[in-house]
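Now for a typical sample entry:
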Amino acid sequence: MHMKHTWALAALVLWTAAPRLAAQTEPPAEILAELSKITGWKIRKPVPMDTMTRDRLKTYLEKRVGEMVDAADIRIEELALRRFGLVPRDFNLKESTLDLMAEQAAAFYDYKKDRMVMLDGQGTLMQGIALVHELAHALADQHVDLDRYIRKSEQSDDAMLARQAVMEGQATWLMSEFMARKAGLSLRTSQSLVDMMGRMAGAGSGQFPVFEQSPLYLRESLMFPYVQGLRFQQAVTVKLGNESFEKVFSTPPRSTREILHPEQYLERIASPRVQPGVTLPAPSGGGKWDKGWKQLALGTSGEFDHQMLLRLYDKENEAVAVEWRAGEYDLHEQKKTGRVLLRYASAWSTPEAAQRYFASYRKILAGKSKQCEFSDEGPERLTGTNEDGGFTVTVQANTVSSVEGWPAPAR
């Protein structure tokens, strides 16, 4: 469900949880030297730095978004988020993303041009812990092609968010370790320090109204790479030592589940196994597509997505998200009418967990639509209509499937 292209750009920007921490005044060369010492990575070249006024920032970001993704892709991403009920139906993805980045950016590393950009108004060029975070990106980019790394995940929305958590989590961990060493401490031996840094990174401060008024899913998607990525990097570093800094790039996590549960990642890289999958349901009642429909998108829905759905519509059952094992969806559009059909399937650890999620999905359907009416409710099948058309939801063994938006009431 994640925005495959737009968030790849958002991942470049340092959301200013970090600058609220103590300022640093070391020149970039000294910061890089310390980061090299922490990671064991050699500095292969200096990092050029530019400054940019905040007035120029939104124009720059809009240009970059335009280079990476076209209007049709943004429309499809909006449709997916709206149809799952993760954002309001009038949500504008492009404008919201640009407004958020322009509001919160303090600095960013442009991994296409291999340069650091500091925003005016954040103190002197050499101030701000933001510099440490972004130089951590720069050092990683000298050993790993970050642009290639993030683009290799485009076949999976959930994998892209996981890779963003690697990038931002590692930079946040290195920033935090840099600060800890100034006090004679280390994250490697203090989980309480990691927990404190995670709380600080995820805490709201009341000074970012655009962020705080954004949909929950958007806020959590933006913070996930920093907060959960930090905890992921800590777990892998404790287990693998300095090898972890390269390992998370060479053998990346395959899903947000592996970020949320690092033990799953560590177990998988120690003993590789096949990732479970799901099969999307037939269009409607076992029917077939005719020539009037066109597939708009095919994507994945991960543990994080399901956690957010449950938090929005059935918070009392949010804990079942940890039982997620696989998820997939697609969108088809009927050319003549413009109707959009959502097909979606999710696999769970046990049939009991699938039943629990099936029960929650009724609440999700009712919550995300103002015109939801149920026509048939059974222990394994749920049908009805809403403003998008007919829907059918079924649970079979450990899989929950739905078809939503069929022109006639779903059979």
Notes: Residues 2-25 have pLDDT under 50 and may be disordered. The chain has two domains: 6-270, 293-406.
